[in-house]
Amino acid sequence: DPVIVGCLIQDYFPSGSMDVAWSKSGNSISEDNKTTITNFPPALASTGRYTMSSRLTLPANQCPAEEFVTCSVKHDSDPAKDVDVPCTRPVPEECPDQPRLTLHRPALEDLLMGSDASLTCTVKGLKKGEIPVFTWQPSTGKDAVTKEPVLDSCGNCYIVSSVLSGCAERWNNGEKFTCTVKLQSGTLSDTIFNDRDKFLLPQVHLLPPPSEELALNELVSLTCLVRGFYPEDVLVRWLHGNQELSRGNYLVWEPKKELGEGPETYAVTSVLRVPAEAWKQGDNYSCMIGHEALPMGFTQKTIDRHSGKPTQVNVTVITSEADGVCY
């Protein structure tokens, strides 16, 4: 039987100029009647970044169990990278001795936009057929939904989650929520709440395009740097004038913990590419930030070529009152 190996490339931008090649022991692998290479087209993720994959199919005698093939990836935005891919699938990890429970905060977008925010309680490391029983305190008046078991990355253990729909108001007021799970091996419990005493406001810096890009008269980059905030969840959106841009037009990196002593803080960077002509004629662009520490939930900075210096305003998002009703 042939051996099939894959190479997954994620979180890159823009979509073009992606080169993927395969090699073994330093020698390039070429297609023939027994060896095929399939590069699948890029797909746009909700983050505004792209994902693509490459599949190599070759005879088993050319890819013994103890050997590797190399996937080489080259993109304009990053130096070339080589990744060794084993010819055989690694042996799955054993399930942990004891299941583990984690609680997840509501999605920030739901909180800021007034949606019916949900808490998620997840148990990992369950044996096949083990059925957890979830209990939430306090109740929100809505029935918690237990999801179907999902196979864990270890390959022979399972993950089960319970989702409690509640209102954003109770979470924002700092009310504590406890998830208790009964298992064959015992009981697990954890508590989560919104500790607003630790909140830190984001600092927003909007940077104009570098002169080197302007000289090329093509696309130019606007950079939005957001730093010094806590907790780490943050929303980044871009506007052209008063029109919000689709997420495929810009790139947002994951928040990273900042270095140094003192309170725990995070930073995030976003880059918007716009036509040089639009920038030169004075079109204005805004970086809008959503974060729980902001008094209005959102703030934005606006910049254009003529003003030079970004201006900042707070933004209020008005949502349906029904979304915030407690049951």
Automatic annotation (TrEMBL):
It comes from the Eukaryota. SMART domains: IGc1. Residues 1-84, 99-189, 202-304 form the Ig-like domain. PROSITE patterns: IG_LIKE. Pfam families: C1-set (PF07654). Keywords: Immunoglobulin domain. This is Ig-like domain-containing protein. It comes from Myodes glareolus.
